[in-house]
Amino acid sequence: MKLVIIQSPFSGDTERNIAYARAAVRDSVMRGESPIASHLLFTQEGILDNNIPEERSRGIIAGLAWRRVCDFAAFYIDNGWSHGMIEARHLYKREEIPFVERRLIVTTRVIQP
After folding, report:
1. When comparing pLDDT for 49 and 106, which is higher?
2. What is the CATH classification number for the domain harbouring 65?
3. Which residues contact 22 (CB under 8 A, 6 or more apart)?
4. What is the pLDDT of residue 108?
5. Does the pLDDT of residue 113 top 60, yes or no?
């Protein structure tokens, strides 16, 4: 079973983004992977407050520490790229940590005759 860091947007429309991140975790598990989505875990009530800069920073650092043991990271990009996701991608590239981009929403293009 591969260890996977899930990256998806969190801030902004947090309700929508949390639902999307949960779907990303499910997708990863259904692929036979063992995912971690620190942005879902650490932002839960009673853990860290994402609105307090120091706590948000600690959460980001703690989540990125998993890169030392992961097999790869999966960026779920249907909702675009957040600043944090872009920073993580730069870090993974610098450190040569494999990553993939994934979509949950399949779009089809209808070609008119």
Report:
1. 49
2. 3.40.50
3. 40
4. 55
5. no
Domain that holds residue 52: 3-102
Q: Establish if 28 belongs to a structural domain.
A: yes
Number of domains observed in the structure of the chain: 1
Q: Could you write out the DSSP letters of every residue in 66-88?
A: GGGT-SEEEEE-TT---HHHHHH
DSSP letter for 45, please.
T
Please indicate, yes or no, if residue 62 is contained in any of the structural domains.
Answer: yes
Q: Has residue 109 been placed in a domain?
A: no
DSSP class of 109: P
Q: What is the pLDDT of residue 12?
A: 87
Q: CA 92: distance to chain centroid?
A: 13
- Residue 75 within any structural domain of the chain: yes
Distance CA 28, CA 22 (A): 10
Q: Nearest Cα to 95, choosing from 76, 73, 111?
A: 73
| Mean pLDDT to the nearest integer, 15-22 | 95
Report phi then psi at 73, rounded to 5: -110, 150
Q: What are phi and psi of 99, to 5 degrees?
A: -150, 155
